[in-house]
From TrEMBL:
Residues 211-395 form the Glutamate/phenylalanine/leucine/valine/L-tryptophan dehydrogenase C-terminal domain. PANTHER family: GLUTAMATE DEHYDROGENASE. Belongs to the Glu/Leu/Phe/Val dehydrogenases family. It comes from the Eukaryota. Keywords: Oxidoreductase. This is Glutamate dehydrogenase. PROSITE patterns: GLFV_DEHYDROGENASE. Pfam families: ELFV_dehydrog, ELFV_dehydrog_N. It comes from Hevea brasiliensis.
């Protein structure tokens, strides 16, 4: 079952639970706009190459549509459609005033130079600029968005460290050529981190209107979600065991250490080598074994479909955060719940994120109790109910 079929199945199940009218159900399922564009760019060697880009705009009943742009060689319209639909329910579950959209470009960013990536991003933006905007459809980072770190010195007193989300800055700049300076057209804008070496503290400068805490938002959201789930089940082993990470994997490989990985050292290794392989304080492993290794909490992230009928029976984790199956007595906290982000100082961002996510978790539990369903379906029914209510209030049949 592909991503769209699985998402539609969950949607229809939630619609039946809520007793939605069949016409309203169909209206909420089908996106009003699906965009497909051809992006032809010159490569550094002078040759021309074409890439196909997509933008699916699923729903705007609760506010402007919002969703990331994914750079991946295996992207396809069905996957983008599923992700756009999930964004609609995610923003509704988090109770923030946005709808759902998603974009993708069928490319492998690892095979493109920085200048080729910039040309591709700008051409894609040119193709869709009149269909996005702060009050229509807000773009965001996703898979393939590269964070490059730069260091600057100024008067020997300040050390400037910038985690540039280049793609997002390029989208902002290209869009602004057509519509004037429009920082709200994208989220995940670059933050310049300034370290004051004389005073041993740092602050962030939002040169393009970015939000502090954005890079850590998804990961920290998973931590909050996991903590709420375990606390709700009267379990606190994450704190008791120090939150030991025994295995990590991504598109570049996987590494394990039963005694616990040194995550800061691993991240530095990844930054230096662009890979998780050959980490000196860990053992390389088959990425396919990552999902079935011995652990308490499994956190599959970003790409859908990694857990399926073939490998689900072999999962040894007691808890799964951001996953799709609920068998073997394993409790699953759905990814539809793990999203949030605001524009305040970093401490305020994290405080508000925790507050919103914990409130959402309690509301998901209430839906589970009302409809006697699992957490995944509780999240779907909560999000779908809010979008359906907004759609009806706006007079969708008029």
């Amino acid at each position: 079952m592909n991503a769209l079929a699985a998402t539609n199945r969950n949607f229809r199940h939630a619609a039946r639970i809520l007793g939605l009218d069949s016409k309203l159900e169909k209206s909420l399922l089908i996106p009003p706009r699906e965009i497909k564009v051809e992006c032809t760019i010159p490569k550094d060697d002078g040759s021309l190459v074409s890439y196909v880009g997509f933008r699916i705009q699923h729903d705007n009943a609760r506010g402007p549509m919002k969703g990331g742009i994914r750079y991946h060689p295996e992207i396809d319209p069905d996957e983008v459609n599923a992700l756009a639909q999930l964004m609609t329910w995610e923003t509704a579950v988090a109770d923030i005033p946005y709808g759902g959209a998603k974009g993708g470009i069928g490319s492998d960013p690892r095979e493109l130079s920085a200048s080729e990536l910039e040309r591709l991003t700008r051409v894609f933006t040119q193709k869709i600029h009149d269909l996005i905007g702060a009050h229509r459809d807000v773009a965001a980072p996703d898979i393939g968005i590269i964070h490059r770190q730069s260091h600057f010195l100024f008067l020997s007193a300040y050390s400037f460290v910038s985690n540039w989300t280049n793609h997002i800055a390029w989208i902002l700049d290209e869009y602004s050529k057509f519509h004037g300076h429009s920082p709200a057209v994208v989220t995940g804008k670059p933050i310049v981190r300034v370290n004051f070496s004389f005073f041993y503290f740092s602050l962030g400068i939002e040169d393009l209107g970015g939000s502090l805490g954005r890079e850590a938002a998804t990961g920290l959201g998973v931590v909050f979600a996991t903590d709420d789930l375990l606390a709700d089940m009267e379990t606190n082993f994450i704190h008791e065991n120090g939150g030991k990470v025994v295995a990590v994997g991504n598109i570049t490989g996987a590494v394990k250490n039963p005694s616990g990985l040194d995550i800061p050292a691993l991240m530095k290794h990844r930054e230096n080598t662009q890979s998780l392989k050959d980490f000196e304080v860990g053992e390389d492993m088959d990425p396919n074994e990552l999902l079935v290794c011995e652990c308490d909490v499994l956190m599959p992230s970003t790409l859908g479909g990694v857990l399926n009928r073939e490998n689900a029976a072999n999962v040894k984790a007691k808890f799964i955060v951001e996953a799709i199956l609920s068998k073997k007595g394993v409790v699953i906290l759905p990814c539809i719940y793990n999203i949030q982000g605001f524009m305040w100082d970093e401490e305020k961002v994290n405080c508000e994120r925790k507050k919103y996510m914990r409130r959402s978790f309690q509301q998901i539990k209430a839906m589970c109790k009302t409809y006697n369903c699992n957490l995944q379906m509780g999240a779907f029914t909560l999000g779908l109910n809010r979008v359906a209510r907004a759609t009806l209030l706006r007079g969708w049949e008029a």
